């Protein structure tokens, strides 16, 4: 069973529905036991970083997440929470990816909203079958730069991490659950890990 | 590179689409769910649903409809029409809408934008502006374009951004329904004034109108209704046309 982490975030249902469209039942939960025992865990996310981190700490979910050994996928704010820190509300993150999250510089039209592509830097199984020129849907004002964990790069005035991976932890800045067939493929790749 | 978005807009009343829609191979052209699916299959980049239901009682049909749409399509969609409270937004977002658009209620109470952005995040709050040119000046209309206010469109767009709007949906009341092209002047002025995404709306009649609005303004998306509904312009054709004219779109 895949568990979708429930916290004060906006689009949890979208992820649940996307998995259902793929014929995959998931459970939405903030119970540490259910999260720890799930085959896979998805951390969705639309919202504000500092309040989301506070919420995770209050429920001790921060320690649960970093201790997970099964495949974990962070989406959008989920990716940002998995980083070392975020300029959004000046919060520390979970520290899974040792890299800071910054706001797009002044002058950029933010949020970076709409369909954009990415370039894969490796043959990561998460992005298997996705070609250059396949577009995915982004909506975010903060980003993680390109770093040692980056497996795919997107360009929006500057290069940032479209996807990252460290061991069993995967993360995408874009929303696979809203990215038509390309996104469905990426979710299927994750479910097959 | 970020693509320019093409967005069909559907008017909903009492849970059904209004204005005829002539898609081939649709069992029920009045069913917003079927239409949404057809547009998603045509590579529409997002869909906007505008609820024009007049009565509160019938408005209750909206949340279950939004849930059905969320189940049916895998692209983002926005719901607007008559939204005036945090509770309205909460119901729609938790039913699966990605964004909501506010119009009249925001003009009457600009602090509403701040409250909604604080509660739900800027990324899901679209401020819709209906602008009408009167004596050379663009003024904001409310109540579905029926009432002209003293509010000037340009400073209003900027205020909406500063209050936390994540996107502006700008409709030129002068062009709406004319099929003579988008109002590129006000679209350019608003797009240059704010640094959030701007959707151009009102006046689309030909594929060239879309090319012009993207070439002559820095808007990030263009919205239309009837030209898509009646099959006068097919979204895949439009995107190929724009691509041929060096405008980046998702095909």
Report the portion of residues of chain A in β strands. 25-35%
Number of domains of chain A: 1
Q: Please state how the strands of the largest beta sheet of chain A are arranged side by side.
A: 2-1-3-4-14-13-12-9
What global shape of chain A is seen? globular
**What is the CATH third-level topology name of chain A?**
Rossmann fold
Q: Please, how many domains of chain B?
A: 1
The stretches of 5 or more residues of chain A where confidence is low (pLDDT under 50) are none
Class of chain A, according to the CATH hierarchy?
Alpha Beta
> Radius of gyration of chain B, Cα only, in angstroms?
17 Å
Shape of chain B: globular
- Give the beta-strand count of chain A: 14
Report the portion of residues of chain B in β strands.
15-25%
- What's the multimeric state? heterodimer
Low-confidence stretches of chain B: none
What topology emerges from the helices and strands here?
The complex is a heterodimer of chains A (193) and B (251).
Chain A: E1 2-5, H1 12-21, E2 26-29, H2 32-37, E3 40-43, H3 49-58, H4 61-66, E4 72-75, H5 77-81, E5 83-86, E6 91-92, E7 97-103, E8 112-116, E9 119-120, E10 136-140, E11 142-144, E12 150-156, E13 158-166, E14 169-172, H6 180-192
Parallel strand pairs in A: 1-2, 1-3, 3-4, 4-14, 5-7
Antiparallel strand pairs in A: 5-6, 7-11, 8-10, 9-12, 12-13, 13-14
Chain B: E1 5-13, E2 16-17, H1 32-41, E3 47-51, H2 56-59, H3 62-72, E4 77-80, H4 86-94, E5 99-102, H5 104-108, H6 111-120, E6 125-134, E7 137-142, E8 147-152, H7 153-162, E9 167-172, H8 184-193, E10 198-201, H9 207-216, E11 221-224, H10 226-229, H11 235-244
Parallel strand pairs in B: 1-3, 1-11, 3-4, 4-5, 5-6, 6-9, 9-10, 10-11
Antiparallel strand pairs in B: 1-2, 6-7, 7-8
